[in-house]
């Protein structure tokens, strides 16, 4: 472990929990969207819209909480455009998702122009009092801002809703076989619109976390492919909520570790370190898809198919 | 109420009319966006679409730029369109473009300062190889392990970006550049320079290659069995399987062609208009080409026209930035909007919109 040098494991784990929040939120949102049978490739675009809207709202009001709300609104608004195009105007989901990303990148940098170089209001850690002073454990578990806990709570909530509630059952039915769900009288388009909006809201929230906490400032292209990594994590997680958590921690860990190694002056060249999160994403995707039993066994059967009610 | 009725086959009229309609709608929505930014919408639209071509003051400079910008867009979009038709989504053209530029430039720089006729052709091969090899990664992973090519090709864009900056700062840095990042300027190295062929037209080898690609892809799709197989695999994958079309072979071919063309576009750019490998060499052509491919309805002639139009928005955008202070990001959003409207109005070619009374519904 000598190449880890002076990196403190407790600090490392604590910072990977923070680093994984945006990917975790975006991925859990996309998981719900995909479980309803829709493939939204525009996560990157919705995230960056959330990042810029959240930043603008936080700077405008001086409150990070309003900022996160702004992120939710920004992401959800762009998701609604996707919803209208794919669900009502029956456009190709792959192409529309790409359009969302291209448009989001452009619009965000347009909105963000006036915000370059500004510091957002700081998001503070929750006051846990004496708990935060426990050696190692206190640093890892009790020294974060609220969003770290909220993102885990959202995962738990999505898991519970999908597994135990009627709403979750209907959502999964729509995603597995929209014709059958339609025949049973469920409003396929309405349910999917709700799922898409939720996905956009989560991606936007994750984006706002990047610009308000992770970086924290506004730069063009701030999301740097995290939306795409979130898409890969949904595949990695085999469409199961808790595995999204594992996947997000894995990638959060890699990105934190590579940054720490860069700072610690490890002997690995910097360019290999900075490309490592993307290379490892590819590697994981290959490992997941190479296993024919696991590959698409869990994928929602109607994923990416256009639904048009003929009757 | 309104209902949608699927057409037995796509409407011919609307297939041609929808791109035009989308452009008009984008101009209207873009005008509203420009108005919100506090600019005169009519003036902004005129500056973008009219002045670069017909304003006596700017046209002399802008007209040649049209081909310079359209060349790479068309070249990349032609390659992408083959894959998109077959349901193979190579969206990492931006990465293949960078890798083509790096490999091609590396070939040229390896010969510096030798002057010989064979250097530029070798660079062209190097560029095509770089893009092809970069596209083969997602292609082989898709064929061998069923890995999603969308995610892999996109991830590789970020990897290529890292390689590009490390090359500009390291291996390919100009030893006489006084420590500044960036390679030697290829356009000042006669054997490696991709110069204007006809003065004042903007026509360089990349534009010639783009025209050749348009013609070749037109012939491929109209007359060749491979073109038929591509169309079949996209429209009826099951029928294609029964007809003996190997999906793996199509993936390798389509990804390979699109990668090689994107690599060529990168090479022609680095040896001509850009001149050198630098950190900010990548300018988003690989992503804009996706819009070009769809705007051209994945049809070679359509892509030719769409590429010219998209190039016009780039040049007009620069002009509007200079004349009206319109932010450059506004143009990017404008281009994204175009793709939205295109996808939205595409409904009209596949579905018939009908009004029916409430009684008929019941």
Question: Could you characterize what this model shows?
Answer:
The complex is a heterodimer of chains A (311) and B (362). In chain A, 69% of the residues lie in helices and 0% in strands. Chain A has 13 helices and no strands. Chain A has helices at 9-19, 21-35, 43-61, 64-88, 93-112, 137-141, 146-164, 166-176, 178-183, 188-214, 226-236, 241-264, 270-290. Chain A has 311 residues and is an all-alpha fold. By secondary structure, chain B is mainly α. Chain B contains 16 helices and 2 strands. Chain B has a two-stranded antiparallel sheet. In chain B, α2 crosses α13 (300-324) and α6 (119-145) packs antiparallel against α7. The N and C termini of chain B lie close together (12 Å). The model of chain B has no long low-confidence stretch (mean pLDDT 87). Classes of the chains: A mainly alpha (311), B mainly alpha (362). Chains A and B meet through α5, α11 and α13 of A and α6, α7, α12 and α14 of B.
Question: What kind of sheet is the major sheet of chain A?
Answer: none
So what's the overall shape of chain A? Answer: globular
Low-pLDDT segments of chain B: none
Whole-number mean pLDDT of chain A: 86
Number of helical regions of chain B: 16
Overall shape of chain B = globular
Number of H/I helices of chain A: 13
Structural class of chain B: mainly alpha
The string of secondary-structure elements of chain B, in order, is EHHHHHHHHHHHHHHHEH
- Number of E-state strands of chain B: 2
Element order of chain A: H for helix, E for strand: HHHHHHHHHHHHH
User: Low-confidence parts of chain A, pLDDT < 50 over ≥5 residues?
Assistant: none
